[in-house]
UniProtKB/TrEMBL annotation:
GO terms for cellular component: peroxisome. GO terms for molecular function: acyl-CoA oxidase activity; ATP binding; FAD binding; fatty acid binding. Residues 20-146 form the Acyl-coenzyme A oxidase N-terminal domain. Residues 481-662 form the Acyl-CoA oxidase C-terminal domain. It comes from Parnassius apollo. Keywords: ATP-binding, FAD, Fatty acid metabolism, Flavoprotein, Lipid metabolism, Nucleotide-binding, Oxidoreductase, Peroxisome. Belongs to the acyl-CoA oxidase family. This is Acyl-coenzyme A oxidase.
Length: 666
């Protein structure tokens, strides 16, 4: 362990802040009680021996990586499991865990149990009857069983209605027969499936008396509880090495007429009676509930990933010195280059914007879920539409910004010991899983097109769509933050109206709705993105106005600078839209650019403070470049010395290949 001597540049940075870092940490945690709770948990978990790696994961073989990850996961989840038994509500528990990133200390990649918590347990909660819950939830919470969520197949991920796995009801034996009719029907991708889980929720097509009744969830035992051998009729394996997620044990699964009892169908929403009578769900999309839950959580996960990446990049940029713009002066900290600030400060602001939006979205999710419990479905489509915008935007922005943080660290950002490449792997995976981003934007577009027809009928629009009732006339440019936020709504109105017009034009030219939809789909996804950006900006601004009211004036000032930076950054990014739909002039744009630079200058003295306030322990950052003490070079060297190639001064390949080759004998 490197001695705790703080790099001088970082020390200087920490004497410059003009706000209280702890106050910001409490704000981000949603209250000091959650900061305390999170820190206590971190302390408890990270003190457990054997949880952190001596040899970096990257030097292990594929098989060793998995085995090491399971060893650590067992230690880690045993402690978390105790925490989950604590006496707080599910809502409180989720909020308390929003900034819990301890698993990043344990796994640079991800955990082989992640699906158990993120999808298996939530599916039981959302899809099982009370009786089923009493049995399965207890077993899952105690981790007497380990489960996953198997939906995607080799042939279909996006198109759930196209899934081929069959669950045929046999009234004679009161069982379902699971069957994989084709290679493409094999489940493919579920995390933990290959060697970790012994149970699994399988999404399969229900057949009763030869008739298909759509996709339903089934609780399926995969492996013997004693020996862990796959049960007869179950074909299981791992899908192989990936860009990231290599600890996650993603697997494949096929069924050869595998029988399960009737009560293994999760029957909260639809039921199959003993005689084979089907009582259908009030809405077939209730089966998709777990996906909505995870999409909501992803926005928060992206805020956390960004916070981690930018902590590393800002601290490193404060200690790294490069070039000599002024002769006879020392090389500046790279953080003083405006281009570097342009890469990093927007990342800090984006993380804040995503935290705020994630909390707001969580409230909506929680309320809609309560409504669903009372049989009220009317707000579900809006929740689905919001999640279908915010999940894609947050994951794609995070992917871009993490890559930017990595590039901001120059060559050292390319090192796995920086942890930035692995974080990129995690972010880009989220662009695909839980609904591929383009596909989700197209789902949101369906809701927007519908909302537009409500407007055309002169009926009122509700909630996040209410602004779509506004005028389509070109807008007068006004550069106040509130006006720019409003202008993003105006841009969205124009993009939605334009996409609807395009769709109609194609239909009028004789195309079917489906063909017209396909032709208009680039405009449609752009409309959804504009709608999502309008939500992100307006929620960030309005929630910050509300939530900063009780903060000290110094912190409030810093946070509102970040809001302004975020708003102006996006105005400049989308300047072509502003030129199309508002009266903005070249002079206005130049003024915006100057204001943006001015804001970065104001934020610069607080940059290190802003990332310190994310309050990540070094173990959680898990990066040679980003530690609190700023001793990046010492840590890089320390990490390099862990390379297995550094164990011996001469590698055997010299004698085997190099020497004979150089002597001309090979
Ligand atoms: C650490 C974390 C690790 C996480 C690991 C990741 C785990 C996973 O990836 S699990 C697998 C996730 N898979 C997916 O997300 C698949 C994505 N695909 C889908 O969600 C759907 O099939 C989808 C929405 C694209 C299309 O579904 P489909 O049944 O064809 O619906 P479609 O015909 O387009 O729409 C029907 C209606 O249902 C509505 N609808 C669709 N989904 C939902 C939903 N979830 N809730 C409410 N309404 C919905 C639509 O809005 C539409 O309404 P309307 O007709 O009024 O416009
Ligand atoms: C790391 C990772 C973990 C995963 N974990 C799980 C898991 O635990 N459980 C599970 O069940 N699944 C899991 N998945 C699978 C994941 O949910 C699917 O990969 C995802 O839903 C996308 O589906 P797909 O792979 O079929 O892509 P496809 O749908 O084949 O997409 C390929 C391309 O086609 C386009 N496309 C598809 N349909 C349309 C359309 N209608 N209109 C326009 N364009 C379209 C897409 O935009 C994309 O560009 C995981 C995936 C990854 C990468």
């Amino acid at each position: 362990m490197v001695a705790m001597k703080i790099n001088e540049d970082l020390q200087k940075e920490r004497s410059k802040y003009n706000f209280d870092v702890e106050e910001l940490t409490n704000f981000l945690d949603w209250g000091p009680q959650y900061t305390l709770r999170r820190r206590n948990l971190e302390q408890k978990v990270l003190n457990v021996k054997g949880l952190l790696d001596d040899i970096p994961e990257e030097y292990l073989s594929h098989k060793e990586k998995y085995e090491n990850a399971v060893r650590k996961a067992v230690l880690y989840y045993r402690i978390l499991q105790k925490e989950n038994h604590s006496n707080i509500s599910d809502e409180e528990k989720t909020r308390a865990n929003f900034r819990n990133m301890i698993s990043s200390a344990v796994f640079r990649d991800n955990s082989p149990f992640s699906l158990h918590y993120s999808m298996f347990i939530p599916t039981i909660k959302g899809q099982a009857t009370e009786e089923q819950k009493a049995y399965w939830l207890k077993r899952a919470n105690n981790m007497e069983i380990i489960g996953t969520y198997a939906q995607t197949e080799l042939g279909h991920g996006t198109f759930i209605r196209g899934l081929e796995t069959q669950a045929t009801y046999d009234p004679e034996t009161e069982e379902f027969i699971l069957y994989s009719p084709t290679l493409s029907s094999y489940k493919w991708w579920p995390g933990s499936l290959a060697h970790t889980s012994n149970y699994c929720v399988v999404m399969a097509r229900l057949f009763i008396k030869g008739k298909s009744h759509g996709i339903h969830p089934f609780m399926v035992q995969l492996r013997d509880e004693e020996t862990h051998m796959p049960l007869p009729g179950i074909k299981l394996g791992e899908i192989g090495a990936k860009l990231g997620f290599n600890n996650v044990n993603n697997g494949f699964l096929g069924f050869e007429n595998y029988r399960i009892p009737r009560d293994r169908m999760l029957m909260k929403n639809a039921q199959v009676l003993k005689d084979g009578t089907l009582i259908a769900a009030t809405n077939s999309k209730l089966t998709y509930g777990t996906m909505v839950f995870v999409r909501v959580l992803i926005v928060n996960n992206m805020a956390n990933l960004l916070a981690k990446a930018v902590t590393i990049a800002v601290r490193y940029s404060a200690v790294r010195r490069q070039s000599q713009p002024k002769p006879n002066e020392p090389e500046p900290q790279i953080l003083d280059y405006i281009t570097q600030q342009h890469k990093l400060f927007i990342t800090i602001a984006t993380s804040h914007a995503f935290y705020i939006n994630a909390m707001w979205l969580w409230e909506i999710y929680f309320n809609v879920n309560k409504d669903l419990g009372a049989g009220k479905l009317e707000n579900l489509p809006e929740l689905h539409a919001i999640a279908c915008c915010l999940k894609p935007i947050s994951t794609s922005d995070t992917t871009v910004l993490i890559e930017r943080c990595r590039l901001a660290c120059g060559g050292h950002g390319y090192m796995l010991s920086s942890n930035l490449p692995q974080m990129y792997g995690l972010a880009t995976a989220a662009c695909t899983y839980e609904g591929e981003n383009t596909v989700l934007l197209l789902q949101a577009a369906r809701a927007l097109v519908k909302a537009w027809s409500v407007r055309v009928e002169g009926k009122p629009l509700k909630g996040t769509m209410a602004y779509l009732a506004g005028t389509t006339a070109p807008k007068k440019w006004d550069s106040s933050v509130d006006s720019i936020v409003k202008i993003f709504q105006d841009v969205a109105i124009r993009k939605v109206s334009g996409a609807v017009e395009t769709l109609k034009d194609y239909q009028k030219s004789g195309l079917s709705l489906e063909d017209a939809w396909n032709k208009a789909s680039v405009c449609l996804t752009a409309a959804s993105e504009a709608h999502g950006r309008a939500i992100l900006l307006s929620v960030y601004k309005s929630e910050m106005d509300k939530r900063t009211a009780s903060l000290s004036s110094s912190l409030k000032k810093v946070l509102l600078q970040l809001v302004e930076l975020y708003v102006i950054y996006w105005a400049l990014e989308k300047v072509s839209d502003l030129l199309l739909y508002t009266s903005i002039t070249e002079k206005d744009i130049t003024e915006l650019q100057r204001r943006y630079i001015g804001l970065m200058e104001k934020i610069r003295p607080n940059a290190v403070g802003l990332v310190d306030a994310f309050d990540f322990r070094d173990e959680i950052l898990n990066s040679a470049l980003g530690a609190y003490d700023g001793r990046a070079y010492e840590r890089l060297m320390e990490e390099a010395m862990k390379s297995p190639l550094n164990v011996e001064p001469v590698n055997e390949t010299f004698h085997k290949y190099l020497k004979p080759f150089m002597l001309g004998k090979l």
